[in-house]
Design brief:
Elements: E1 5-6, E2 9-11, E3 22-23, E4 45-48, H1 51-62, H2 67-81, E5 91-98, E6 103-109, H3 131-136, H4 146-157, H5 162-175, E7 177-178, H6 181-189, H7 191-195, H8 198-204, E8 217-218, H9 221-233, H10 236-239, H11 241-254, H12 260-265, E9 269-271, E10 274-278, E11 281-285, H13 292-303, H14 308-311, H15 316-336, H16 347-350, H17 353-362, H18 371-374, E12 389-394, E13 400-406, E14 464-467, E15 473-477, H19 485-497, H20 503-508, E16 512-513, E17 522-523, H21 529-537, E18 554-557, E19 563-566, E20 575-578, E21 581-582
Antiparallel strand pairs: 1-21, 2-20, 3-19, 4-12, 4-20, 5-6, 5-13, 6-9, 7-8, 10-11, 11-14, 12-13, 14-15, 15-18, 16-17, 18-19
Bound molecules: glycine.
Length: about 575
């Protein structure tokens, strides 16, 4: 590594109304100035859900790494410091913008169903879905994609040796780190589920099940050994050899079916991003097997037909149009979306401006239309979940990365691989285990998302990049939140582009969520009572207030060069960290 002295500026995770972005330079963004990004020589930024991991990413930038090196280092560090969502045993999606060529690439490292998977594997003799099996057993896991994905992008687009980007994560695991508040709190809350698994009980709790308190040191030696193998042997150090053997042995202990060959067969796919023009900007995100990109573009296309700014931010008229657009998008999601390597997804039709116009014409701007009239479906109360995590990185050259990855639920299936130190996902629940029935997010899937061997389950993860009219990146954003991910990203983008908010304001503003089924409009605290009253009068069913909707860790270009970063205040311990170099 090159040697620099560096300092790190950690800001943010602040209260709404007080939000200030973490800036690599002074000044605030506005949309017209934002066309002038970036002057060369400006500094980079990392924003993630955990301050230690953001520092690791910023350190990699300061050591001469690019945004991709920083993203990979952050991703591996989160696997150590944020075990509820950072992972080796899950999967995700990464959007990469390369400044030198102007190219944007969508990396699919989503989990794949094992070869023994079948459409009936989670059905009981009564034809119902066995919720325990699909969420909390060895069978719940798809073949993990994270290690293959991170190693792939680092080798192809990174600049530093793999060992350099993995070293900080190895050190955090081997030497331990001080347990931050959020981790102590979530381990306490997940105690029952995690202590039911021998591996998780041993890795995340003290002997006799005592929970770590904030400030105590958590050492993860088996995880450090696994990370070391990856640093020496690349992805093969995970998908073959000792770690693979441990995964297969864990399958035998917990009733799973992932085989050596399934691990060997895992493949990362580089896909064309889904991009759409929204007013004067271009918005790009992940294509299937994520539904995120298609429905983000579809909703923006619908909304483009109205002057949202004139309606007023979070006014009843604005929220009504948001909800109506969300209703149409989630209805389509339930029917058309699945793994494009298995089914034909009508992507161009769904993202067509004329299709959006026809949907807009069906929307009554004065009254809500019941979901049953938009398409048939079930109605259930949804439960907000806190799984999944998003981080963004950006370097001085204008390379930008937007990455969302997950174990599905917090701590995935709760099953840890004994001897290897990491948790496995429960991503099989993102398939339509029984087409037409709801999953744990009350999302309804169709035959397009039915289970099949080697298929990737449909996702809502929406890592997004926004570009100005010259094609320069303006914003990297994304969020956790299960089914709420797409609507959270939509609102961050609209706040930033239509309402001219800086990235801190765009992140802090209260959010709503609507997903067709259940026919309920959810809102965060901060939407005015008058507005809610008006929405009720328009015919909306107002749902219970969730504690929070998503957590967008974003980076935006600053008008005269450099970046502003924000870590969403909705998650404790999140931080945006600016690379800062002194001679
Ligand atoms: N597991 C949540 C998602 O991929 O959307």
């Amino acid at each position: 590594m090159r040697r620099y002295q560096w300092i790190l500026a950690i800001v943010l995770a602040v209260a709404p109304g007080l939000a200030q972005p973490s800036d690599a330079r002074e000044g605030a963004r506005n949309s017209s100035e934002a066309q002038f990004f970036p002057a060369s020589g400006e500094r980079g930024m990392v924003s993630s859900q955990d301050a230690l991991a953001s520092r690791v990413g910023a350190q990699i930038l300061a050591s001469g790494g690019n945004a991709i090196d920083a993203a990979v280092a952050t991703g591996f560090a989160l696997a150590v410091t944020l075990p509820r969502a950072g992972n080796l045993g899950g999967g995700g999606f990464m959007m990469i913008h390369l400044a030198a060529t102007g190219k944007t690439i969508a990396i699919d490292y989503r989990e794949m169903a094992p070869s023994a998977a079948s459409p009936e594997m989670f059905l009981t003799s009564d034809g119902d879905v066995d919720r325990t099996k699909i969420l909390g057993s060895g069978l719940a896991s798809g073949v993990p994609g994270t290690v293959a994905g991170l190693v792939h992008v680092q080798r192809r687009y990174g600049r530093l040796p793999l060992i350099d980007v993995l070293s900080p994560a190895i050190a955090l695991a081997r030497n331990g780190f001080k347990v931050p508040y959020a981790l102590a709190d979530s381990l306490e809350k997940s105690k029952k589920r995690l202590q039911a698994d021998a591996g998780s009980a041993a890795y995340f709790y003290k002997p006799s099940g005592v929970v770590y308190v904030q400030g105590e040191t958590l050492v993860q030696t088996d995880l450090a050994d696994t990370l070391s193998r990856i640093s020496k042997f690349g992805a093969e150090g995970f998908y073959q050899g000792a770690v693979a053997e441990k995964i297969v042995a864990q399958m035998a202990r917990s009733g799973g079916v992932i085989t050596r060959q399934d691990l060997k067969n895992y493949r990362v796919v580089e896909r064309e991003p889904v991009c759409g023009n929204y007013r004067e900007h271009q918005v790009c995100s992940m294509p299937p097997p994520s539904s995120g990109g298609i429905h983000l573009v579809q909703m923006l296309n619908i909304l483009e037909g109205w002057n949202l700014r004139a309606l007023g931010h979070n006014s009843a008229d604005y929220i009504h149009r948001l909800a109506a657009s969300m209703q149409r998008a989630y209805a389509d999601r339930s029917q058309y979306l699945g793994d494009p390597d298995f089914v034909d997804v009508p992507q161009s039709r769904l993202t067509d401006k004329r299709y959006a116009e026809s949907l807009r014409q069906q929307i009554d701007v004065k009254h809500a239309i019941a979901s049953a009239e938009v398409a048939p479906g079930l109605r259930e109360q949804r439960v907000e979940s806190t799984e999944t995590t998003h981080f963004s990185t950006w370097d001085a050259e204008g390379n930008a990365v937007s990455n969302t990855y997950t174990l599905n639920w917090a701590y995935g299936s709760g099953v840890a691989v004994i001897g290897a130190g990491f948790l496995l996902n429960n991503e099989m629940d993102d398939f339509a285990a029984k087409p037409g029935a709801r999953n744990s997010y009350n999302l309804v899937g169709g035959e397009a998302n039915a289970i099949a061997p080697a298929k990737r389950p449909l996702s809502s993860m929406t890592p997004a990049l926004v570009f100005d009219k010259k094609g320069l990146p303006l914003l990297a954003t994304g969020s956790p939140g299960g089914s709420t991910i797409i609507t959270v990203v939509l609102q961050v983008v609209l706040n930033f582009l239509d309402f001219n908010m800086n990235i801190a304001e765009a992140t802090a503003a209260p959010r709503i969520h609507y997903q067709w089924i259940p026919d309920q409009l959810y809102y965060e605290v901060g939407i005015s009572k008058d507005t809610l009253h008006r929405l009720k009068n328009m015919g909306h069913n107002i749902g219970a207030t969730p504690r929070r909707l998503g957590a967008a860790n974003s980076i935006a270009a600053k008008p005269n060069g450099g970046t502003s970063g924000i870590a969403d205040y909705r998650r404790e311990d999140a931080a945006a960290v600016a690379e800062s170099i002194r001679d």
